[in-house]
Amino acid sequence: MTDGWNARSAPPPASGSRTPAYGANGANGGSPWWSDALADPWRDPYAPSQVVVPAAGESTGPAPEPVVDPDAPRRSLAPVLLICLVTALLAGGLGGTLGFVFAVRGGLANGGNTQLGAPQADPSAAVNRAPDSLAGVAKKVLPSVVTVRVTGAIGSGFVVSADGYVITNDHVVEGADDTMSVSFSDGSTAKASLVGREPESDIAVIKVAKTGLSPVTLGNSDSVAVGDPVLAFGSPLALVNTVTAGIVSALDRTLQSGDPGGTTRYYAAIQTDAAVNQGNSGGPLVNAAGQVIGVNSVIRSLSATEADAGNIGIAFAIPINQAKRIATDIIDHGKARRTVIGADVVTGTATVTGARLRSVEPSGPAAAAGLKAGDVITKLDNHVLEDGTDLIALVRKYAPGTVVPVEYRRGSKTSTTSVTLVADSN
């Protein structure tokens, strides 16, 4: 047994002859390896049991790769790169086109930005607001609202005629001189002059040096109901062109205001929770149809001083029927007629519920209705009276010549009558 290192080479076969395949036991002329290979303990059991030497010219497998000459000229890669570039551009263009088409069909073509929220069903509805919407009413009324500027003060007003008449509060123009001016919602300004005032009703008329104006539409304050939606316009705290919304909170809210030693003003007002502050005075209170139903005039505040007063959701407006009547008198006659009942009443007492008559004019309407001094009027036109202030404020609301039912108490007896109100003689 040998490891094969001392094997002898067999003589080369004759030209044109084939080397025979050797058997496992060295048959056919003997093996160039060892004859007992299968019994060799060092042999790989998975190796073939015999070696076949191919004859000359017989193929032994794939031909070896040719040796490349490193100095041979190389083929240019430019055509290959150009083809790759063109292919990439075509693929990108096709992909972008398909993506855009799918985006448009899916409703996502929005200028390259991510779309948040559902698409609008009708975008024009938000731009073209209905005339009867709050925004539509505001757009209609604002051109007719003015900011009134008096030396050291600011208020509001609204145009009631194309030739420049404006209604505002008496307390807005109190102390006005030739420097008074107004500004409009478009930013334009004009000089203004005082036409006339009615201090106790807190109504004044001014004339603007400008024509071709857009007057407001005046409504009917007698048809207003509690709960009606309203808008308040003006310049609160000098914030011009401000609009606030609310409802009618109460009707015929009787008030008395005025500084000590000054004019005492009486209101049978429309109460609203629309935000009203200093500077809103004289501005219009408008219903849902865009009609003026009141003149914003007074606010209720928790502050003890006027300088610190602010909105708490309780504001009052003079009914437009009353304001219109007074303004017409001022424009036509230079002064307003004040409506009276022909009696002097007791105010500021809580000992009696109702309006106690201190005295009655002998030829006045109260005397003509059978009323006497000492009588206590408990109702006027079915409105319950708490004290004398209520009677004065409600009488001011009506036009001269109006007939109103009255309930009164004389001693322990309650009676009714009708009074024809008149204008005072002043």
Automatic annotation (TrEMBL):
| Statement: the UniProt record of this protein carries the keyword Ribosomal protein | no
- Residue span of region Disordered: 1-41
- Which class of enzymes does this protein belong to? hydrolase
Query: Which Pfam family is an annotated match for this chain, by its short name?
Result: PDZ_2
| Key words of the record | Hydrolase, Membrane, Protease, Transmembrane, Transmembrane helix
Enzyme Commission (EC) number? 3.4.21.-
Question: Which GO biological process entries does UniProt record here?
Answer: proteolysis
**Domain PDZ span(s) in chain numbering:** 330-387
Instruction: Tell me the protein family, please.
Output: Belongs to the peptidase S1C family.
Q: What is the official name of this protein in its record?
A: S1C family serine protease
Organism equals Paractinoplanes globisporus
